[in-house]
C-alpha cells in the first residue's frame, strides 16, 4: 500500500512538472511573439511617420483654410498656400473646393445604425471631386482602395493604436460607420495628397449599388475587359449594355479574389461606369431640373454626408474637365502578406497635386 502511494505521488509530481514545463514554454512563446509583433508594429509606425514627414511639403501657416461654415479640410486646419518646386513658385487655387465621395462595402453606414467603433466597413471606391467655383468646372481624382498610406488604427474602445502604413481602404473601418469614419477617411486622403483641404464628404453603402442606374433611367456603357465574362456572358468585352438595378451591382461589385490585382481591374470598370453615370445624370438634369434632387432623396437613406442637396445640384451640373485622373502608382502583391497593394509614385503624385490644386506664380 505504501509503495503504491509512493508511485501515485511520483506520477502526480511528474504530471505537475510536465504542466509547469508546458506553462513556461507557452509563456516564453507568448513573450517572444509579443516582442516580435511589437517590433513589427513599431517598424510600420516608423515607416508611416516617415511617409507623413515626406508629405509635409505644405508647412503650417497662421491663415485658416476653413470656410465660413467652419468646415475644415484635412488633418490640419492650416496648410501652406505657397510652395516652391524646382525653382518655380506656386500658390493654392482659392477657387477650388474639394469633396470626398466614398463607396463602402457594408450596409451599416447610416445615421440610424449604432455608434460602434470598428464597424464601418472598408472603402471600395474613393473619389475626390475638385470643384472650381469661378469656372463652374469639375475634376475627378480616383484613389485605388489598396493604396498604401498612413492609416490610424483604433481599438473597439475608440482608443488610438497609432499610425502605420496600410491599405487606405481600412481607414474607414476604424470609425463608427458614420461621420467619425468619414472624418478619418478625409484625414487619410488629405494626408496622402500632401495636406490638400477637403471641405465635404459623402459615403454610400452597398444598398445604393442597385439604385444608381435605375435613378437615372439606366446607364449605357461599353464593357471594358473580360473580367465579367465568367459570371455573365452578356458582359463580354466590347459589348454595349444598359445597366439596371440587377446588372449594375454585379458590374460594380464583382471581382475574382483569386486573381492578383482584381481590385484594380474592378476599379477600372467603376471608372467607366462613373463617366457614363455622370453623363446620364447631366442629360436627365437637362430634361428635368428636379433629377438631382430625386437621386439625392433616393440615395439619402443609405448615405452619410455633411453636404446638402443644393451642393449636389451644383456639382452634378458642373462641366467635367477631362477624364478621371487616377493617382500615379504601381500595383504589387506583398510577398509577406500576399495582399494586393498599390504604391504611389511620390514625385508624380506631388506634381499632380501642384498641377491640380495650385497655380504658377509669375515672377
From TrEMBL:
It comes from the Bacteria. Gene3D superfamilies: LCP protein. PANTHER family: POLYISOPRENYL-TEICHOIC ACID--PEPTIDOGLYCAN TEICHOIC ACID TRANSFERASE TAGU. The keyword Transmembrane applies. Pfam families: LytR_cpsA_psr. Keywords: Membrane, Transmembrane, Transmembrane helix. This is Transcriptional regulator. The chain crosses the membrane at residues 12-33. Residues 124-282 form the Cell envelope-related transcriptional attenuator domain. Belongs to the LytR/CpsA/Psr (LCP) family.
Amino acid at each position: 500500500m505504501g509503495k503504491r502511494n509512493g508511485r501515485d505521488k511520483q506520477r502526480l509530481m511528474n504530471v505537475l512538472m510536465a504542466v509547469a514545463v508546458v506553462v513556461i514554454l507557452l509563456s516564453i512563446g507568448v513573450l517572444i511573439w509579443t516582442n516580435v509583433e511589437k517590433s513589427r508594429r513599431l517598424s510600420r509606425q516608423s515607416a508611416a511617420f516617415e511617409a507623413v514627414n515626406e508629405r509635409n511639403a505644405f508647412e503650417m501657416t497662421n491663415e485658416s483654410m476653413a470656410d465660413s461654415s467652419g468646415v475644415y479640410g484635412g488633418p490640419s486646419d492650416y496648410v501652406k498656400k505657397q510652395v516652391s518646386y524646382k525653382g518655380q513658385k506656386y500658390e493654392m487655387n482659392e477657387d477650388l473646393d474639394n469633396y470626398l465621395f466614398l463607396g463602402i462595402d457594408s450596409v451599416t453606414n447610416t445615421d440610424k445604425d449604432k455608434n460602434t467603433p470598428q464597424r464601418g466597413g472598408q472603402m471600395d471606391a474613393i473619389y475626390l471631386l475638385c470643384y472650381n467655383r469661378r469656372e463652374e468646372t469639375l475634376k475627378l481624382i480616383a484613389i485605388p482602395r489598396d493604396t498604401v498610406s498612413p492609416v490610424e488604427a483604433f481599438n473597439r474602445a475608440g482608443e488610438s493604436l497609432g499610425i502605420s502604413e496600410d491599405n487606405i481602404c481600412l481607414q474607414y473601418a476604424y470609425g463608427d460607420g458614420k461621420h467619425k469614419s468619414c472624418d478619418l477617411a478625409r484625414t487619410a486622403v488629405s494626408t496622402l495628397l500632401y495636406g490638400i483641404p477637403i471641405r465635404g464628404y459623402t459615403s454610400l453603402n452597398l444598398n445604393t449599388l442597385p439604385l444608381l442606374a435605375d435613378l437615372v433611367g439606366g446607364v449605357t456603357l461599353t464593357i471594358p475587359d473580360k473580367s465579367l465574362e465568367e459570371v455573365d456572358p452578356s458582359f463580354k468585352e466590347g459589348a454595349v449594355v444598359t445597366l439596371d438595378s440587377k446588372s449594375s451591382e454585379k458590374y460594380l461589385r464583382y471581382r475574382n479574389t483569386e486573381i492578383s490585382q482584381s481590385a484594380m481591374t474592378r476599379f477600372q470598370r467603376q471608372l467607366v461606369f462613373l463617366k457614363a453615370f455622370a453623363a446620364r445624370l447631366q442629360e436627365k438634369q437637362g430634361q428635368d431640373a428636379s433629377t438631382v434632387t430625386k437621386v439625392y432623396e433616393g440615395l439619402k437613406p443609405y448615405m452619410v454626408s455633411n453636404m446638402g442637396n443644393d451642393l449636389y445640384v451644383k456639382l452634378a451640373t458642373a462641366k467635367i474637365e477631362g477624364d478621371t485622373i487616377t493617382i500615379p502608382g504601381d500595383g504589387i502583391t506583398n510577398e509577406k502578406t500576399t495582399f494586393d497593394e498599390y504604391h504611389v509614385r511620390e514625385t508624380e503624385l506631388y506634381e499632380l497635386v501642384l498641377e491640380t490644386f495650385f497655380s504658377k506664380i509669375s515672377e
